[in-house]
Amino acid sequence: MKVFINKRIPEIGINRLLEAGLQIVFPENESLTYEEWLEYCQNADIILNVGGDFKYDKVFFDACPNIKAIALYSVGFDHVDIKEATRRNIPIGNTPDVLSRATSDVAFLLMQSVARRASYNFQKVIDDNWGAFDPLHALGQELYGKTLGVFGLGRIGFQMAEKCKKAFDMEIIYHNRHQNEEAERELGGTYVSFDELVRNSDVLSVHANFTPEHKDLFNESVFEKMKPNSIFINTARGGFHQEEDLYNALTEGKIWGAGLDVTNPEPMSADNPLLKLSNVCVLPHIGSATIEARNGMARLAAGNIIAFSKGEKMPNCANP
Ligand code: DGY
């Protein structure tokens, strides 16, 4: 079977596929136009998809009738019409667990960066503007004993909560599709309504799977209810927050700051006004960017393809 991989992934995944006797096709140039990408897909049996540049929707599936399976090099599958894939019997593999630690590390890093105004202070050093010691300037806030609100207490949300509990003895509240009693016991966390989450969090960190109903969930009316000292963290998907409303909340003092590893669109343009704000820290979607996580993702994606090629169920499958 022919596997099309649109971008290089760690060797561990490639070697596994080759050892399993699969034929691999890489593009000559990794920055493909939609048409070029489609042509590669039309000539493959299986796709190992890296990144969220192109959508797997009805138009795609109609244009690529030979595609038998797709293995995503990601845990998120918001760029795939899972219903349509399932209707056509196309399994969609993903890579859960292996990136939970790395992604929650980035949420934790952003929380501290914003609380201690790291990007603002870093910029001062770069600008040769260190300045004299000033008891009243560039003051951050401490996180000890504060309340962490987790939106989406899945694997990544749980690990973020665990870190905050251990490092800063933070109180954990969360909102989720379902109450998670096991996680509550382990974290001493409390399930709250969305409204309570928004009103009571000192740090509100987004970790849910993104679906179309979540588009712009964190908007003006939500930021309005948040505490003025609160920090908004998003390492899930940029579609969760309404960017202009976030900008206004940050400049009008409705919230203290924001840490984003995801934006909408990606990449964020360098002249985006959010980047001018001293209470914002933006990273270029590096949640899973560790050697360990990326190797794990390569292993799982290859494992999904190999299982499928043997007529078995993908071990990590996003279809219901
Ligand atoms: C994921 O796995 O969904 C990440 O966002 C991609 O790095």
Automatic annotation (TrEMBL):
It holds the Pfam family 2-Hacid_dh_C. SUPFAM superfamilies: Formate/glycerate dehydrogenase catalytic domain-like, NAD(P)-binding Rossmann-fold domains. PROSITE patterns: D_2_HYDROXYACID_DH_1. Signal peptide: none annotated. Residues 7-319 form the D-isomer specific 2-hydroxyacid dehydrogenase catalytic domain. Its EC number is 1.1.1.79, 1.1.1.81. It catalyses: (R)-glycerate + NADP(+) = 3-hydroxypyruvate + NADPH + H(+); (R)-glycerate + NAD(+) = 3-hydroxypyruvate + NADH + H(+); glycolate + NADP(+) = glyoxylate + NADPH + H(+). Belongs to the D-isomer specific 2-hydroxyacid dehydrogenase family. GhrB subfamily. PANTHER family: 2-HYDROXYACID DEHYDROGENASE-RELATED, GLYOXYLATE_HYDROXYPYRUVATE REDUCTASE B. This is Glyoxylate/hydroxypyruvate reductase B.
